[in-house]
Structures are given as structure tokens and as C-alpha cells.
Amino acid sequence: MASPAFGQMVIGPPGSGKTTYCNGMSQFLSLIGRKVAVINLDPANDTLPYECAVNIEDLIKLSDVMGEHSLGPNGGLVYCMDYLEKNVDWLESKLKPLVKDHYLLFDFPGQVELFFLHTNVRNVITRLMKKLHLRLTAVHLVDSHLCSDPGKYISALLLSLSTMLHLEFPHVNVLSKIDLIESCGKLDFNLDFYTDVQNLSYLQYHEDHSAKYRKLTKELCEVIETYSLVNFTTLDIQDKESVGNLVKLIDKSNGYIFAGISPSAVEFSKIAVSDVHWDYYRYPSRLFKSYVSSY
């Protein structure tokens, strides 16, 4: 069997920082010695700050779809993803030369319905994972400023949970722009409360709503806690340590840390039960500073 290729599918609502993430993450991974290819699968993203290895606009453009079929942006994006699924052979052929020696970053659209309602994206990724032996982690970005509003934070939790259940892939939820978390207001609780996602019942007392809505908040929080699936890690894309910690977490979720290791069950068990010391920081910090200054 061919060796697996590894990567990330970067998803999240509009404004959560997906394209900035792909740009920063690709530069960070390059600095620590990985050969990276960024694949743009957002047909509405026509200003890319990174060098694009594969661009969906070579297959279909949102502006063309909207004009030809009299569709709005949302309907146009659904059409584009449906078209991509029907022409997945095009994407597969573009990726085949890359999977041999590249780490892949897939930059997806921000329309959240594509990831918890429609099946197009899931079907495309499932096909690629099987055909090209890809091991991908879904990196779901949520703007951290939502934590300052209990209602918005609960909505983000529900979105994260729905996406995890729908996609059924290795999954990491990320509070992005953590350096700006209090830009829209002071938090009611410590940051750990929002990342660990426990004891959510406290949120009902911090909403400016009637008793009826507090009851609804309580019921929604109980649904989230019943599944016990959602938690968050944090990210400041301009901070070396923050990015490095996230990379470690993603590498554990998709198995990258075990790449090249003998599949012996004995060896695997020895590594799995102990801390994995990975040299993510072998490059001088001045190189990372030059990356940060490029923003």
C-alpha cells in the first residue's frame, strides 16, 4: 500500500480567519522543514495571500455561476461544491503529483451549511482520502470574540458539534484570533471555561433575556454537554508557540507523528503511552520573526 499523505481541511464561518490561517500555517510548516501545498477550494476567494498549488477557480468560478444561473452567493457556492463533487476526478488528478511529498492544506468556503447540512464536501474528501490515501484533520476555526457574548458562544458550540457529527473526520476546534478575544467586551469567565466547555449552565445567568430564553439556553447547553465532544484549543497565528502547539495537536489527530514508524503493534503502543517529543522548534526564532513581519 502507498504511504499516506497528511494534511488539514480548514473550515469555519466567514471572518474566522481561514485564509490567514492557511497563509500563516503554510509558512510555519515550511520553516520547520515540511513541503507544503495549499489547495484553494473556495470559488469566492479571488485574492489569495499564499501561493496556490491547486485552485478551484481553474474548474469553476462563483461569479460565472451567479451570472449564468441567476443565483445568489449562497446558492452559487452550493452549486460550485456540487459541481466539484461531480468532477472530483479533476481534483484527484491535480493532487496526485502532490501527495507523494507534500503536506496539504485545503482552504474551504465559509458557508457553514456545506459542512453540517450538505454532503458534497464530505463526499469529495471521503473519495480523496480513499483514492489518495490521505489522512486529514478538519481544523474548525471560530472567532474567539464570540466568547464575549453567551448567545453567540452557544451558537458556535452548536455549529462545532453539528459539523463534527456530520463530517465524521478527525477534528480540532480552534478559537482563532485569541490575542483579540476581549476586543468586543470583557469575558464573564476565565478562558479555560470557554476552551474546556464544561459547566455551561452558568451561561444562562449571563444572558440578557427572559426566563423563557434562559430555559432554552439551559436545554441547548445540556445537549452539548451530553455529547461531550466539543472543546477548543486557542490560536494566535502570529505567535510561534501558539502555532506550534496547534500543529502538535493536529499531528496527533491525523497520525502524522507516527509517519515513518514501523507499524509494529509493540512499537506503536510504546510511543502511544509516552510523551512524543517532536522537534518543532529546530529553526531559529529570527526566522519566525521574519514570517510574522510579513503580515
Structure characterization notes:
The chain has 295 residues and is α/β, with parallel strands linked by helices. The chain is built from twelve helices and seven strands. It has helices at residues 18-31, 62-69, 73-86, 88-95, 113-116, 120-132, 150-167, 191-196, 211-227, 240-254, 265-272, 285-292; strands spanning 5-11, 36-40, 52-55, 103-107, 134-143, 171-176, 233-234. It has a seven-stranded parallel beta sheet with strand order 3-2-4-1-5-6-7, with helices on both faces. α7 (150-167) links the parallel β5 (134-143) and β6. The longest helix is centred in the middle third of the chain and has 18 residues, at 150-167. The termini are far apart. The relative contact order is 0.15. The model is unreliable at 262-274 and 281-295 (pLDDT under 50).
In terms of topology, how is this protein built?
Layout (H helix, E strand, L loop, with lengths): L4 E7 L6 H14 L4 E5 L11 E4 L6 H8 L3 H14 L1 H8 L7 E5 L5 H4 L3 H13 L1 E10 L6 H18 L3 E6 L14 H6 L14 H17 L5 E2 L5 H15 L10 H8 L12 H8 L3
Largest β sheet strand count, sense and barrel closure: 7 strands, parallel
Helix percentage: 40-55%
- Quaternary structure: single chain
Mean pLDDT: 87
Low-confidence parts, pLDDT < 50 over ≥5 residues? Answer: 262-274, 281-295
Report how far the terminal alpha carbons are from each other. Answer: 41 Å
Total beta-strand segments: 7
Count of separate DSSP helical elements: 12
SSE string: EHEEHHHEHHEHEHHEHHH
